[in-house]
Amino acid sequence: MGDDNREIFGGQLLDLVAIQGCIANDEITPDRIWIATEKADDDLYKLQWDEETVCEFIKILVPGDYKKSEWARSSSNSRHACDVYVVRFDDEAWERDPNALEYYIKFSADANGLLSICLISCHLS
What we know:
Strand content: 25-35%
Distance between the termini: 23 Å
């Protein structure tokens, strides 16, 4: 998979509102967040975030934060169709802020039918 064929065209792959509903209803819990890459694990460490924080962050996203969809590989080399979101966010006040730094998150839903999230990347833009 080269960089020239990573992007998936056609819009969002995942229903963000449904995923947020699953998080709000505890169908997707922090123990259902799979940190799929070493880079994502490093990103979260730098941000001082854990899986619960990832769930809370996903809940603040809005469809307008969607940037693109693309294929990504986990550290175990499995391939995942992901949606990418970018949002200006103040992580100290824990609120959206048009003057704050941009946060970038790339995730996929579990392909085996379980309600879980595969986190590929989460970092400052």
